[in-house]
Amino acid sequence: SPYKVKWATPAAGGGGKVLQVVQGTTTTNTSNSTFTYADTTLTATITPTLSTSKILVLVSQNGVRRHTGNVGNGIVVKLMRGASDIALICGFGGWTNTDLNNYIASVGIDYLDSPATTSATTYKTQFKNDANAASVSVQNNSEVSTITLMEIGV
């Protein structure tokens, strides 16, 4: 084979190793019909063992739905660390310029974060209706959403 893989030697302090895994789940059906972000109820907290560690955040936000009531409805979902926005997961999802239900099913993200702390760190998702009208929801029909936090030693 013309392809050769060479593995790098991990740095001191457990570089590249998974040091811990934390998972949060929710099935709480949550709706929002405003332009103001609201919690989806999906959250998890990790306390890194090293300040140099990276946190791999894996989000599967399920039961995502755009409801009838306004042709401009669209769901926006973001990932947060504490009170800080760190990634947009879905922007204006489900928009069709029609007044129909739209079951998006799932949106997600794999995000490598560098919180630079050994303090308890909370990650969560929030969502809003970009049209500020009608309704969008997550965990529709009590579908399970998950957030997995993996501390990667660096």
Describe, in short, the structure shown.
This protein is mainly β and 154 residues long.
Helix content: under 10%
- Which secondary-structure class do the elements indicate? mainly beta
Calculate Rg over CA atoms.
18 Å
Note the run of SSEs as H and E: EEEEEEEEEE
Shape call: elongated
Number of strands: 10
Proportion in β-strands: over 45%
**Count, helices:** 0
Largest sheet: 6 strands, antiparallel
Mean pLDDT: 89
Fold and architecture overview:
The chain is an all-beta fold and 154 residues long. Helices cover 0% and strands 54% of the residues. It contains no helices and 10 strands. It has strands spanning 18-26, 30-32, 38-46, 54-66, 75-81, 84-93, 102-113, 121-129, 136-138, 145-152. Strands 1, 2, 4, 7, 9 and 10 form a 6-stranded antiparallel beta sheet that branches. A 4-stranded antiparallel beta sheet has the order 3-8-5-6, with no helix packed on it. Strand 5 and strand 6 (84-93) form a beta hairpin. The mean pLDDT is 89.
What are the salient characteristics of this protein?
154 residues, single chain, mainly beta, 4-stranded antiparallel sheet, 6-stranded antiparallel sheet, elongated, 0% helix, 54% strand
List the helices and strands and how they pair.
Blueprint: E1 18-26, E2 30-32, E3 38-46, E4 54-66, E5 75-81, E6 84-93, E7 102-113, E8 121-129, E9 136-138, E10 145-152
Antiparallel strand pairs: 1-10, 2-9, 3-8, 4-7, 4-9, 4-10, 5-6, 5-8
